[in-house]
Amino acid sequence: MARRGANQPSVGGYNEAVVLDQIRRAHGHSRVELADATGLSAQTVSNIVQRLLDAGIVEEAGRTSSGRGKPRTTLRLVGSSRYAVGVHLDPGLITVVVLSIDGEVVARHARATPRAQDPADTVAVLIEDIQAVLSESGIDRSRIVGLGIAAPGPIDADRGIVVDPPNLLGWDRVPLRDAIAEATGLAVVLDKDVTAAAVAEKWVAAPGGAPNFAFLYLGTGLGVGLVVGDEVVRGGSGNAGEIGHIVVDPEGPSCACGLRGCIAVTCAPLPLVEEAERRGVLEADRESDDPTRVDAALTRLVHMAEDGDERARDLLQRCTVHVARALAVVSNLLDVDRIVMGGPLWDRVGPTFTEAIPPLLDEMRVARGVHPLSIAGTALGSDVGAIGAACLILDEALTPRPTSLLVPSA
Ligand SMILES: [Zn+2]
């Protein structure tokens, strides 16, 4: 879906983003084709392309001739011209990546999230990792457009604050965005992990793909990132996509919200592992509810199911049915064309979910006779949160919106 430009001098920045967006999506358009696709005049396109060439953001990639007439010079993005840093703060894992403007991960670091009592200690670790990845990458700071942070919700997007995520002990209104900006000197944006994952999907995994999709993020908790009409849906404060209190088992355990059988108390990793322990499927030998220990227990449960343990298999099947019910609510509410699944748990539950969820979901979907719904795992693996965090910056800088543009316009 090409965006249309406006032939007025006052919106040069916007038009520049329109042209850049088209070059990025089309892989090898000429100036004439850019003018056709954007509705901008040949002169306007030519001026913008010259500025982008001077800034080193695009390059001439060769000539194509189509029958008679002058051969046309095609243009493409220069991957090494601009980069963004992506930081994913997960309760179990901290991941930092450097992403080039064309979506390649050029540097990466990951470590277990420290069990710090004081959030300041975790912030210090984040800063240390960011500095290490940047110096390892050897990229000149002038080419780094900014840094994105993906954090568990709820967040206060306007103030850049991580509010009080249930799985990050001791975190209470931590001004993470400003702390990282001050330490690194970079422009920083903060978003929810599920939203970042959806942006990664839109930008890197399937650019030009379905304009309406939900990203089911499977981590310490479950959430969805939403893209509707090719725009990321954030809601009023950046907290859209909280599916944790959708009821998936009316007979299920009671939840702090007052309902019974919410997805948060039935098939998030901790309640799933606890249920396995209650039933004697897993030994109840965990020392704590620490996310890394819960994750290890869940991995054991999955391996048991794979090795043919019927009780472990039943538990996972039950969880799959619950997730399908929650996805039915999401897809009926938003009428999406596509559901993408991923996040830290995906490498374990992916095979089960990919096989079992599509037929279950199709039984519950109102629009099943109108259009199909494609369901697949993300191609980006467990780094999707960090890649998405970096994409937040690219999305902000390169998507044509009247308010955007970190790219120099002169
Ligand atoms: Zn609830």
User: Major sheet, described briefly?
Assistant: 5 strands, mixed
**Distance between termini?**
27 Å
Radius of gyration: 23 Å
Number of strands: 15
SSE topology string: HEHHEEEEEHEEEHEHEEEHHHHEHEH
* CATH architecture field of the largest domain: 2-Layer Sandwich
Q: Level of helix content? A: 40-55%
User: Spans with pLDDT under 50 lasting ≥5 residues?
Assistant: 7-11, 403-410
Instruction: Give the helix tally.
Output: 12
In one word, what is the shape? globular
Organism: Microbacterium gawkjiense
Family: Belongs to the ROK (NagC/XylR) family.
InterPro entries: ATPase_NBD, HTH_MarR-typ, ROK, ROK_cs, WH-like_DNA-bd_sf, WH_DNA-bd_sf
Pfam family, one: MarR_2
Describe this structure in words.
The chain is α/β, with parallel strands linked by helices. It has three domains: 9-77, Arc Repressor Mutant, subunit A (Orthogonal Bundle), CATH 1.10.10; 82-201 and 385-398, Nucleotidyltransferase, domain 5; 208-378, Nucleotidyltransferase, domain 5 (2-Layer Sandwich). It is built from twelve helices and 15 strands. It has helices at residues 12-26, 31-38, 42-54, 119-137, 176-184, 193-205, 263-266, 269-278, 291-306, 310-334, 346-364, 384-398, and strands at residues 29-30, 58-64, 72-77, 83-89, 93-100, 105-112, 144-151, 155-156, 161-162, 188-192, 213-218, 222-228, 231-233, 338-342, 374-377. The strands form four sheets. A five-stranded mixed β-sheet has the order 6-5-4-7-10. Strand 2 and strand 3 (72-77) form a beta hairpin. Helix 6 packs across helix 12 (384-398), helix 8 packs across helix 9 (291-306) and helix 9 (291-306) packs across helix 10 (310-334). The radius of gyration is 23 Å and the shape is globular. The structure holds zinc ion (ZN). Zinc ion is lined by residues 245, 255, 257, 259, 262, 264. InterPro entries: ATPase_NBD, HTH_MarR-typ, ROK, ROK_cs, WH-like_DNA-bd_sf, WH_DNA-bd_sf. It holds the Pfam family MarR_2.
